[in-house]
Amino acid sequence: TSQNDPSNVCGQGSPGIGLDEPAFRVTSYLEELEKHRFSVCCHPAVETRVSTSITKHLYFGVYAIISELGRGHWYSWDLWSIMLLVVLLWFARLYLHYFSQWVLLHAISVPVTKFQFYPHTVDLCYQNSLVRTSEELAMIVVGPLTLNTVMLLMVLMRWGCQLLFGSFPSYLSKLIIAWGLWTMLDPLAVFVVDAFLGRLHYAPGKPIADCAKMYWLFLRIEESGILGILITLLLYTMLFLISSTSLYLYLMRMHNEGWLMDIFKRIQSDEATLFVPFDLEISNQELSYIVKKAEQWRGINGEKRKVIVCDYIWKDHANKSDVSSTGLQLPNEILKSIGSSGAVTVHVSIYTVHLGGFQELYRHFLRLPSGAIVE
Q: Which stretches are transmembrane (predicted)?
């Protein structure tokens, strides 16, 4: 025999492999699609602690803020525009914080001896002896609460623009994120500046830091400022929770139409907990519209369309259903959604009826027991 004879090549193969057996199995297109998942979480859904869940949400929120505000290279216009926006919002946050305190002092008829603006702080001096405990508490929280109110107004404006125009400028959306970040960090920023300027100590004629107001008040009244420190920490904790929650909800629910929430669910949730509609799934209103238009349709040669509705009751007879003999070829995911024995599946068929009596299938739909309608 010739050396180029294919039989020699096959005969020299490894033993145990027949000539009619393929060397590898070719997977079909549907089998390849089964390998894909819409959730990247590969572990099964297990009970997780509340602290672990909060940590995941916190980590994802911080990463999302950094990625949204710090995106781009150092030479890109986007990065420098965001940096300029953050710097401008520093001044807006600072002056609005102290301006709200000045308004509160005028509202409670406390004379202000000094109110002067600086790039890094504001000197706001008043007679502390004329302020009661409840009013001093209001002086501490009025600044952060005003910033949170502005944050709420921005979110409402963004929601209204989304309803009216269907979109919102991305730069303004980043402005809301930057403002929410400064709102959350406002007590810390004020504390750092006041500590650097030496406002933690009481001095006549000089402003007192917000975090030290309750300490000196209780020290003057009860000769012990420990309770004032505890109250201040409690107030700042509550303000931080309010501002961080509002920022997180906006970032996850409204920013970029909530795509961050979709990403978080895909990377943290198990696939069984997510809902994804079928391919070619339609609503009940759309099906009603299609059926109504089909009944009114007339062809140029006198054709008309007829709608036929059949109910199929699925029964389990040796893992075979009664509908298998009807010739309906259903995808695997639809067969899985049919459920247990006794479930009813509605088959809606639309035929084009010609003058000679010939019926041609135009479109047909299945209403599954779960309520989904698939074409």
A: 77-96, 137-156, 226-251
- The H or E element that residue 203 is part of is none
| CA 144 – CA 58 distance, rounded (Å) | 21
Task: Give the burial string for 274-308 (b: 16+ CB within 10 Å, else e).
Answer: eeeebeeebeeeeeeebbeebeeeeeeeeeebebe
Which residues have a Cβ under 8 Å from the Cβ of 265 and sit 6 or more positions away? 39, 274
Q: In which domain, by residue range, is 327 found?
A: 281-374
One domain, residues 253 and 306: no
**What is the DSSP code (8-state) at residue 317?**
B
* Domain stops at, among 272, 303, 330: 272
Phi, psi angles (nearest 5°) of residue 124:
-125, 105
Measured CA to CA, the distance from residue 306 to residue 297 in angstroms comes to 9
Distance CA 220, CA 224 (A): 8
Give CA–CA dist 84/174, Å, rounded. 12
- Looking at the structure, do residues 319 and 221 belong to the same domain, yes or no? no
What's residue 1's pLDDT? 40
Is 232 or 33 the better-scoring residue by pLDDT? Answer: 232
User: Quick one: average pLDDT of 141-165?
Assistant: 91
Asked whether residue 366 is domain-assigned, the answer is yes
- For the chain, how many structural domains are there in total? 2
Decide: helix, strand or coil at residue 278.
coil
